[in-house]
Amino acid sequence: TYLAMSGRAHPDVNPVTDGGDLPIKSSPHRHKVGVPPKQNMFHDFMYTFKETFFHDDPLRHFKDQPKSKKFMLGLQSVFPVFDWGRNYNLKKFRGDLIAGLTIASLCIPQDIGYAKLANLDPKYGLYSSFVPPLVYACMGSSRDIAIGPVAVVSLLLGTLLRAEVDPNTNPDEYLRLAFTATFFAGVTEAALGFFRLGFLIDFLSHAAVVGFMGGAAITIALQQLKGFLGIKKFTKKTDIIAVLDSVFSAAHHGVRILLLFLDSYIVKNVSLNHINMAMQWNWQTILIGASFLTFLLTSKFIGKKSKKLFWIPAVAPLISVIISTFFVYITRADKQGVQIVKHLDKGINPSSFHQIYFSGHYLAKGIRIGVVAGMVALTEAVAIGRTFAAMKDYQIDGNKEMVALGVMNVVGSMSSCYVATGSFSRSAVNFMAGCQTAVSNIIMSIVVLLTLLFLTPLFKYTPNAILAAIIINAVIPLIDIQAAILIFKVDKLDFVACMGAFFGVIFASVEIGLLIAVSISFAKILLQVTRPRTAVLGNIPRTSVYRNIQQYPEATMVPGVLTIRVDSAIYFSNSNYVRERIQRWLLEEEEKVKAASLPRIQFLIIEMSPVTDIDTSGIHALEDLYKSLQKRDIQLILANPGPLVIGKLHLSHFADMLGYDHIFLTVADAVEACGPKLSDEV
């Protein structure tokens, strides 16, 4: 629909022209678009640099402070413990004590299982929940995050390390490479924080993270079938096809062996123990795993039903370990084929600095693996920290968090730890248990220390099946089906990124899934930058507001005027597309006008409010559009260009070419100014 216009101009209107351009009405009451004063190039560069890397103005607290105060603020900035520690009291300690003991009961069995995911001895999982939490408690700014090994990073690290070194044939080299990767994971995290490059992790979109985590959770759960079913020969690959092939091959082999031995049992009276030992699947192992997985899932269900019972799912893994270990010990089920943890060394973390590769063949591999593992660990930890900070209404500094996590892993690599980060399951328990500060991490670390010093021999008869059940129970929440459904409803392209990462992980490998996630995230950014949205605007009846006619069907278009909004900055990457899309809008509108016998299009108004910036390619595109329109006797008009845009148009002399009387503050002003010429045509 088109807005009917008066057949004559207002008597006070004085048409003006710019050379051979169409006349535009001037009004003493109309505000002109201001050209900002010319900025000093150095000041302009410094402003851009500050907004890019120091947008939060981290030094604002240091202004006008004496040197002693500045020193204390600097110390608190690096070590937040000196800030919140001043107001620490017994009430806060009570909450931290309960939370620390609760997450310790959860982390100990999880750490043993996660170390196996990384193809490391179980003790290294416990080591990684002793030193890193102590470092983070001093340097981290989150009150709720619980530090330690996590399933996804453990699987990723184990997969990448196994691709370089076989842990079975070269265990020493594998361990050294793990420490090297942990060291460089920490260096990567600390460097990103120190150089204020934390925004780089935001390039991994939420949808890609949801898909990656879901795929990794399924992969981890499938990997646990080895311990859950008691299979001895299992594939080293992580994709779902190889894992299921390994599982069903073992089942098929087991059936054949069972039939053979049953025949021997009937004829030669072979013992049932021999039959059981020959089977690829172990029924006692399956019974243990299935029973305690049911117990763990039930306890989690109870905890979700009542927040007051949060401690039940928190202590359930430790209770499962204690009961299953005792059961295996008294029945000697390990002699019936039930696989157990076996020996677990006592003592605190030994130094591992001398084991890190700082030169040689494995240095480059350690750096590559460390960078990948560090980025994934960083993404998970920062997301968890921000989530719980928002729930408690306090702020965390993402760059400081990265430095804290980086230093934590660097120190950890020198004390026999592998990559540690924030654990969502433990952090959630920490939050619900009433933690007040990072002291809960210290409490957890002390409990782990006591375990390392005195209790590790008790884990000798812990069955691998219970560790598999604990890990499966822990990774199930990572499969966020509701989030995937919401992503599908909201943004189909985001859903493609989500599913690409998901299927990449389960059908290829963790690193391929991660690569797909990052690639699709970048592809989405490039698509949005190179193909920005444009819209035709119409007037909302009885207002001076112009909006997208597709969003507001009641909006009416002005005869002879086409108003288009560009919803993006105009750069070299999209300038040609923007020009061509505007010309296509114009061509389509001219065809409609001609078919309806309406006045021809005489004015093309470009609404520039969303155009935050423009480069030389964008200016050249506007120049080409302007010249093309001039040949067709159509006047180009700009509405509300921002300060950065109008400044560049002024410096490039395009504003002079167009004419400042063709640049307006609002679309309504521009349409009103088109009135005299349109009136003459009626």
Automatic annotation (TrEMBL):
CDD domains: STAS_SulP_like_sulfate_transporter. The keyword Transmembrane helix applies. Residues 551-674 form the STAS domain. Residues 1-30 are annotated as: Disordered. InterPro entries: S04_transporter_CS, SLC26A/SulP_dom, SLC26A/SulP_fam, STAS_dom, STAS_dom_sf. Keywords: Membrane, Sulfate transport, Symport, Transmembrane, Transmembrane helix, Transport. The keyword Secreted does not apply. The chain crosses the membrane at residues 145-163, 175-197, 203-222, 242-261, 281-297, 309-330, 367-390, 402-421, 441-459, 466-488, 500-523. It is found in: Membrane. It is a multi-pass membrane protein. PANTHER family: SULFATE TRANSPORTER. NCBIfam families: sulP (TIGR00815). This is STAS domain-containing protein.
